[in-house]
């Protein structure tokens, strides 16, 4: 059976199973929305802990320290070039020196991105219980390819407004029609002998700037 005919058969069986049921049947969502009862600060701390478990590097910063932190991370990585989405707040880059910064439009190519050292973005939401950051292509995040090709990703997450405890709390904030990218740590895979290799299908290094007035 070919791929096309397999897909047709699967869809036929789904339609047969659904029968004449209307498409807008309400789905009960009486499951737990989060596990435990945490303060916003405890939720941010849990996010930082799980990000670190996934080998992301977490850097705490006050709102006034974002620019300095971003500049330091690019310098520490030895970046000479960086790409940013068109809607990234310019004040986040105000202290960057010695780095050629390119603003990426939708026409930027993978070949062009392959020559760039780092990318700096915001995020849509971050999930504490899973240590996951979600990008949705908003102006401060840009097209998906800019966060997949460069070897180093600096992602700014604002707490508490962008941090939720669990996946059920994140989903209502996201538009499923948008290009969603779910990131749990730097890109990594393992071969048959379980040797870990990083940077295969995304950045080798993920620096998360966790911004909070409580710092």
From TrEMBL:
<protein>
    <submittedName>
        <fullName>L-lactate dehydrogenase complex protein LldG</fullName>
    </submittedName>
</protein>
<dbReference type="InterPro" id="IPR024185">
    <property type="entry name" value="FTHF_cligase-like_sf"/>
</dbReference>
<dbReference type="InterPro" id="IPR037171">
    <property type="entry name" value="NagB/RpiA_transferase-like"/>
</dbReference>
<dbReference type="InterPro" id="IPR003741">
    <property type="entry name" value="LUD_dom"/>
</dbReference>
<dbReference type="Pfam" id="PF02589">
    <property type="entry name" value="LUD_dom"/>
</dbReference>
<feature type="domain" description="LUD">
    <location>
        <begin position="48"/>
        <end position="211"/>
    </location>
</feature>
<feature type="region of interest" description="Disordered">
    <location>
        <begin position="19"/>
        <end position="39"/>
    </location>
</feature>
